[in-house]
Amino acid sequence: MIKILIVLGAIISTVLTDFAHAEKIAEYDKKILGFVQLGMTTGKQVTSILAKNKCNVKIGKNSYNDTIYITDGHCYKLYGDPIITFVSNAMGTIVEIHIRFYSGRNFENWDYYRMDLLGIYGPKKTVSGGFHFWESGNMNIELAPKTDPDGNHKSRLVYKYEGSTYITPSSETRNLL
């Protein structure tokens, strides 16, 4: 009887620990930079919140003709004086966030980001050539160390939504699904 209670206690504590960890991951999946939920937040919401926080925002287009919102990192307490780019899809929903930052002379800022991501998302998926990858829900995260031709260490952190908001089926296709 005691052995059964011990085993049951171990199972319950494992389930509760896994549930708490899943809640922590879900919490971070929802709010990147404190307010963006990939696949749900719109470009208008981003510009509104950034303006409310007195952040400069430049609106433009990327090479894929997606609308992008660029702001500097002065509104955030992030490492390496970052430039943050929010990328929206054709429906105006934010589907990517790019954080480009100075890595530091010895990649110390890059290492701060790496350690923070390990703490939030757990062990990395794969490592290749210094690149680190994580998956969390419908989101892929990439941390890439880079050195430009001038020898400056400028790295990037990319959050990318892998959900289904990017392309919507036509009414003809929808009828077939």
Features:
8-stranded antiparallel beta sheet, 4 helices, 177 residues, alpha+beta
Quick structural summary:
This protein is of the alpha+beta class and 177 residues long.
Please provide a written account of the structure:
The protein is built from 4 helices and 8 strands; from the N terminus they run H-H-E-E-E-E-H-E-E-E-E-H. The protein is an alpha+beta fold and 177 residues long. The longest helix has 29 residues, at 2-30.
Q: State the oligomer.
A: single chain
Weakly predicted, low-confidence segments = 3-28, 166-177
Helix-strand sequence: HHEEEEHEEEEH
Hey, roughly how much beta strand do the residues contain? 25-35%
- Strands side by side in the biggest sheet: 1-2-3-4-8-7-6-5
If helices are DSSP runs of H or I spanning 4 or more residues, what is the number of helices? 4
Overall pLDDT score = 77
Question: What is the element layout, followed by pairings?
Answer:
Blueprint: H1 2-30, H2 43-52, E1 58-61, E2 67-72, E3 83-88, E4 94-102, H3 108-121, E5 127-128, E6 131-136, E7 139-144, E8 154-161, H4 171-176
Antiparallel strand pairs: 1-2, 2-3, 3-4, 4-8, 5-6, 6-7, 7-8
